[in-house]
Design a protein that fits this description.
single chain; alpha+beta; 4 helices; 5 strands; 40% helix; globular
Length: 99
């Protein structure tokens, strides 16, 4: 586990919240900044994080999801912890809005 001030890719985040927890192994999934309770934190794309785990560690998607949840998300329960965003597909949004 690292903090934002230690990595150049998280420069803006480090200026706002130097204690924000970041995961350099998920740099490709880094989306930007978000608010977690009262702090600005890193936001990662959940689907890309899982894809990274599948590709780099030869895991099945279900195993990667379980691993990330148990070994990343549940281990970083603080106000400085990142947000993992799973975007809703547009067809699901359209269904909610128009039906």
């Amino acid at each position: 586990m690292f903090v934002a001030k230690d990595h150049p890719i998280y420069k803006t985040l480090g200026e706002v919240n130097p204690k924000a927890i970041v995961f350099p192994e998920f740099n490709q999934a880094y989306m930007g900044l978000g608010i977690n309770k009262a702090k600005t934190v890193a936001v990662y794309d959940w689907n890309l994080v899982i894809a990274i785990m599948v590709n780099q560690h030869d895991m099945k998607p279900s195993d990667a999801k379980e691993f990330v949840y148990l070994n990343v998300i549940t281990q970083t329960q603080s106000e400085d912890a990142p947000i993992f965003l799973q975007q809703t597909p547009i067809d699901e949004i359209e269904h909610i809005l128009y039906f």
